[in-house]
Amino acid sequence: MNSTIHERPGVYSSYDASSVVSARTAARTVGAAAAAAKGTANSVEMITSYEEGKEIFGEDAEGVYGMSTLLRLLFANGAGTVKAVAVGKDKNGAADYAAAFAALEEEEGVDIVVCDSAETAVHQSLRTSVESASALRRERIAVVGGANETAAQMVSHAKAINSERVTLVGPDAALTDGTGLSAVFAAAALA
């Protein structure tokens, strides 16, 4: 083992070079908020496999992409654990992403947060949640995507989000069978 020690008045640090050389990439914990076929709204579930996620949240209907698709892409691309929340409805019957984000905000150990919405207002709510959690020492970022956006629309979308803690992904993605998916799901694959 090779250690380097630097000392200045009032500042003492020690570095172990072997930990840097032998470090390996660990699977990250991802927070996910999405519409689900079943499950308890705004309740965080810890998922460790796609099959477990399907059991808890159900499968997306044909042509409808939500939690099941998000989980499939997250686990296929290296997520170790997903803390997932089924998005509930507000008193007007609209999807209540803010409540789902608030549930995830309280969770420890979440590194990245994604959602199944391409709406700028939802992304702004996610930005606020990620920034609030990070202010409480629960450091995290969000990875989001739009839908059918041109480069100019993506620039406007990014300006509306305006946060170093949010990454906007684009353009849209495609499944292996050629079916188009919004960039929301490219964001999940990236996360």
Structure, explained:
With 191 residues, this protein is of the alpha/beta class. Helix content is 35%, strand content 26%. It has 7 helices and 12 strands. The chain has helices at residues 17-21, 50-57, 67-76, 97-105, 120-135, 151-161, 183-190, and strands at 3-8, 11-16, 29-34, 44-47, 81-86, 88-89, 95-96, 112-115, 141-145, 166-169, 173-174, 180-181. The strands form 4 sheets. It has a 6-stranded mixed β-sheet, with helices on both faces. β1 and β2 (11-16) form a beta hairpin. α2 (50-57) runs antiparallel to α3 (67-76), α3 runs parallel beside α7 and α4 runs parallel beside α5. The radius of gyration is 19 Å and the shape is globular. Residues 17-24 have low confidence and may be disordered.
Layout of helices and strands:
Layout: E1 3-8, E2 11-16, H1 17-21, E3 29-34, E4 44-47, H2 50-57, H3 67-76, E5 81-86, E6 88-89, E7 95-96, H4 97-105, E8 112-115, H5 120-135, E9 141-145, H6 151-161, E10 166-169, E11 173-174, E12 180-181, H7 183-190
Parallel strand pairs: 3-5, 3-8, 8-9, 9-10
Antiparallel strand pairs: 1-2, 4-5, 6-7, 11-12
Give the gist of this structure:
With about 190 residues, the chain is of the alpha/beta class. Helix content is about 35%, strand content about 25%.
**Overall shape:** globular
Radius of gyration: 19 Å
Query: Approximately what portion of the residues adopt beta-strand conformation?
Result: 25-35%
Distance between the termini: 34 Å
Average of the residue pLDDT scores: 84
Which parts are unreliable, with pLDDT below 50 for 5 consecutive residues or more? 17-24
Major β-sheet annotation: 6 strands, mixed
Number of contiguous helices: 7
- The helix-and-strand class reads alpha/beta
Largest sheet, order of strands side by side?
Answer: 4-5-3-8-9-10
Number of strands: 12
Helical fraction equals: 25-40%
Give the topology string: H per helix, E per strand: EEHEEHHEEEHEHEHEEEH
